[in-house]
């Protein structure tokens, strides 16, 4: 098997594993840890519409500011160290979408256009956020959209670096080099 084909098969396997992990982290984990149970209980007590409205944040940077304030105070009233939670939440929202930013342009040439890539990832992340709140397994937060998109853009940057390093040159009969692929 040619090295390029081996790399493509390996990347396909990585994309498959990443997709399974994302489904677990974004939806199934919350069903097994009890968070979804408390959200569903709230919906039963107050109604589905009120629950959905309660679990949506459309104010940009509100959650990030809240976490920053918790970092400055280090502990909230109950003694719970909110700094660890804030760091894991914000960093996790960025890190978890870096592979997506690499995978999309790797497999779909149209995603190598930065505007199409940004539109696609933003639309995809919006879908995830809406699905989380509709299924009552998580909050729909515009800050998550911002942080997830930053993660995708970082992954896209890694793809661009990868593409520059591993792009193939083919020789035609005259001996001149032609680039294959595009960014």
What is the strand and helix layout of this fold?
Blueprint: H1 3-33, H2 35-46, H3 48-54, E1 56-57, H4 62-73, H5 82-95, H6 98-107, H7 114-134, E2 140-141, H8 142-166, E3 169-171, E4 177-179
Parallel strand pairs: 1-2
Antiparallel strand pairs: 3-4
Helix pairs in contact: 1-6, 2-3, 4-5, 5-8, 6-8, 7-8
Could you describe the 3D structure shown?
The protein is mainly alpha-helical and 183 residues long. It has one domain. 72% of the residues lie in helices and 5% in strands. It has eight helices and four strands, in the order αααβααααβαββ. A two-stranded parallel sheet has the order 1-2. A two-stranded antiparallel sheet has the order 3-4. A hairpin with a 5-residue loop joins β3 and β4 (177-179). α2 (35-46) packs across α3 (48-54), α5 (82-95) crosses α8 (142-166) and α7 (114-134) runs antiparallel to α8 (142-166).
Summed up, the domain count is 1
Strand order in space, largest sheet = 1-2
Number of strands: 4
Residue fraction in strands: 5-15%
Major sheet size, sense and barrel closure? 2 strands, parallel
Principal-axis shape equals elongated
Calculate Rg over CA atoms. 21 Å
Q: Residue share in helices?
A: over 70%
Q: With helices defined by DSSP (H or I, 4 residues minimum), what is the helix count?
A: 8
Structural class: mainly alpha
Spans of at least 5 consecutive residues with low confidence: 169-175
Order of helices and strands: HHHEHHHHEHEE
Terminal residue distance: 26 Å
Mean pLDDT: 82
